[in-house]
Design goal:
- The structure is a homodimer.
- By secondary structure, chain A is α/β, with parallel strands linked by helices.
- Chain A contains eleven helices and 17 strands.
- In chain A, the strands form three sheets. In chain A, strands 1, 2, 3, 4, 5, 6, 7, 9, 10, 11, 12, 14 and 17 form a 13-stranded mixed sheet that branches. A two-stranded parallel sheet of chain A has the order 8-13.
- In chain A, α2 crosses α3 and α6 packs parallel to α7.
- Chain A is globular, with a radius of gyration of 19 Å.
- Chains A and B meet through α3, β6, α4 and α11 of A and α3, β6, α4 and α11 of B.
Chain lengths: 352, 352
Amino acid sequence: MQKGKASIQFECPPWITAAGSIAGKKEGEGPLGALFDRTKEDDRMGKDNWEEAESYLQKEAAGLAMKKAGLSPQDIRYLFGGDLLGQLIATSFGLMEFEIPLFGLYGACSTMGEAMSLAAMTVGGGFADRCIALASSHFATAEKQFRFPLGYGNQRPYSATWTATGCGAVVIEKEKAAGGKTKGEKMAKITGITTGKIVDFGLKDSMNMGAAMAPAAFHTIWQNFQDFGWDQDHFDRIITGDLGTVGQKILLDLLRKEGYDLRQQHMDCGIELYDGMKQDTHAGGSGCGCSAITLCAMILPKLKTGEWKRVLFVPTGALLSTVSFNEGRSVPGIAHGVILEHIEEEKREWNT
Amino acid sequence: MQKGKASIQFECPPWITAAGSIAGKKEGEGPLGALFDRTKEDDRMGKDNWEEAESYLQKEAAGLAMKKAGLSPQDIRYLFGGDLLGQLIATSFGLMEFEIPLFGLYGACSTMGEAMSLAAMTVGGGFADRCIALASSHFATAEKQFRFPLGYGNQRPYSATWTATGCGAVVIEKEKAAGGKTKGEKMAKITGITTGKIVDFGLKDSMNMGAAMAPAAFHTIWQNFQDFGWDQDHFDRIITGDLGTVGQKILLDLLRKEGYDLRQQHMDCGIELYDGMKQDTHAGGSGCGCSAITLCAMILPKLKTGEWKRVLFVPTGALLSTVSFNEGRSVPGIAHGVILEHIEEEKREWNT
């Protein structure tokens, strides 16, 4: 059902029945380290180059999600995925051998929100029983592409974020798609989405992505409140993707001006992922893998147990490109909101 | 309704009610020149750089499509768009001021098929009354990014294609979304889609994209035939995006081996767009703008009049990246099929 300008409320909410996460060494040493399905000591993943390493992350995360749900690639109708690299090479090469029809997506670090939104619409509209949504990033492929080669050893300002190495993948199923086939769990249901527009506050600092994305996160959260007629108290948590400490402050300020106080509910995957003081990550984590692995490893498990009943998950993207950046253009942002809810045990039959 | 492994048949087929096309100088001088809504003498479009010129194409094409349908940006629920550039900068900067929620897509030159597929599912699933799907490319932004700076003046082999400068945009509406509001025409209905997977035959020549894409086009067309249980005779035309003369030959050969003879039905937007002998475009046109503007300027008008009753439109993409290419990787392909049908005049009321 269409709600307001940019939101949808699903009459039959699709279920997330499995989540796979794989992360790099630094992420494994952070506060969420123990929660990932797998962490790798070697960020090259034994591959010849960083891009192949990121492709490996995609393949592994999708494989883990399928395995947990007891599914094979033939059971998945569509893949919705993306990464930060030009022409999505991590996705293309990583997912090729599954031979599943693919929708390639680019929403910068908001890609996990975009992928989940489109997968949920596809399942909710009856066009698929099971899809996978996933997104990855890799510190080395991203720094090489967007900023400096790692060997250059440039200094990073305190506003800079650290691109996460990792990939998170979720299986999104029609509620009754089980049919005895899936062994997936009732991790959460997607009850609605709010799709972001491009928001540009004119910021031009490639070392301060948090500030570039905060206005987009603000707009999507604000739009969600308008479209559904609720406020922050509707949610246990409102979780942005990778604003970091600098972007978080701007987001809370922008929302306060509109009369919303999110200090109780707001959480940011980029802030959760690392111990900024000990791990030298400055403002926090970033990259589309950051929100994807935090979702899979921390957010969904808490929704599953019911510790959180309702979460607004808002991956945030900064549309940075070296080409537009070098031509003096600003860095616009975009953020896609996904409403996740706990699935009550008693209300539904499952695997009967 | 799900059909077979990778296809959907829409129970309420969304309608294409308007199409806007804008093209560059060379495209304007080609065989389809008179059919475009607008052609520009200056490929820089009066802008400071090529990327801004391509953004201008996106803005103009979307604006033209909305104007023809008598709609304003507020009437459009979602945009589905993309281009060939890293981080989709032509799309981000071109569509920003419409303030419409955006799904950024990357399917190389297959993006128009991907955008139409997702927009049709969104409308068909009841999640939007009106969407716009669009894709653009620009010769200068693409050559600069993928191959050589134009000033270098490198020689192009005969297998090379010429990236089209242009953007095509279509308004996709729920059949009855009119509600007295739209002034759009009954251009065609989208009765089904077949979504492509990544197909890699190991080709490594960045100057022969047609050969890289042909196996993907083959697979999507073959899959369409399997999923629906029909063959080439079901269609008046089966129109690929930008295989060019080299890719066309490979496609026809691959299909013949499976028992399908498409010589009567096959057409390729890249072959139609230029006069290869006179315009020095070698194997044909390419780029996601190539199939998008050919769709808007030639294919949809013929479907509207009923000259063609049924068309399988299959934009084809080569997942070329300078990074993966320089690392010695192959160029995989992907192709997304969209089934377009003539809307019979007598069956429906319209604008009553």
